[in-house]
Each structure stands twice: as structure tokens, then as C-alpha cells.
């Protein structure tokens, strides 16, 4: 059984502000959320080097 994730985002009417809704529906600035998710992906790859889905951060 695989894991599923529902990512939810809020965008202002002008498109100037973007937020991710965290698990408890807390608004997190998109840049902060993205950095956190990249960090999680890097940590996972370090812990599971045999993972076939390689993460490359350019």
C-alpha cells in the first residue's frame, strides 16, 4: 500500500502571495514550505541510497 499526500496551496487574487496549507491547515509561505520539502527529500535519499527515484537539486 502506498502513501498518498494531498498538497493544498492558496494563491492571492493578484497572484502575488502563495502559501502551502500545512497538515493542520496552517498557512506556510511557499518558499519556506518548498525548502522544507527539498530537505526532506535529500534526507530520505541519504537514508535510502538504493531508492530508484534519485533526487537531484540543481
Structure description:
The protein is an alpha+beta fold and 58 residues long. The protein is built from one helix and three strands; from the N terminus they run E-E-E-H. It has one helix spanning 30-47; strands at residues 8-11, 18-21, 27-29. A three-stranded antiparallel sheet has the order 1-2-3.
Break the fold down into its secondary structure elements and pairings.
Elements (H helix, E strand, L loop, with lengths): L7 E4 L6 E4 L5 E3 H18 L11
Antiparallel strand pairs: 1-2, 2-3
Give the amount of beta strand, in percent.
15-25%
Helix and strand pattern: EEEH
Overall pLDDT, averaged? 86
Strand order of the largest sheet: 1-2-3
* Broad shape: elongated
Give unreliable regions as ranges.
none
The helical percent reads: 25-40%
Write down the Rg.
Answer: 14 Å
Q: Tell me about the biggest sheet? A: 3 strands, antiparallel
Number of distinct helices: 1
Task: Give the total of beta strands.
Answer: 3
Q: Which class of secondary structure composition applies to the elements?
A: alpha+beta
- The N- to C-terminal Cα distance equals 31 Å
Sum this structure up briefly.
The protein is α+β, with helices and mostly antiparallel strands.
Characteristics of this structure?
single chain; 58 residues; 3-stranded antiparallel beta sheet; 31% helix
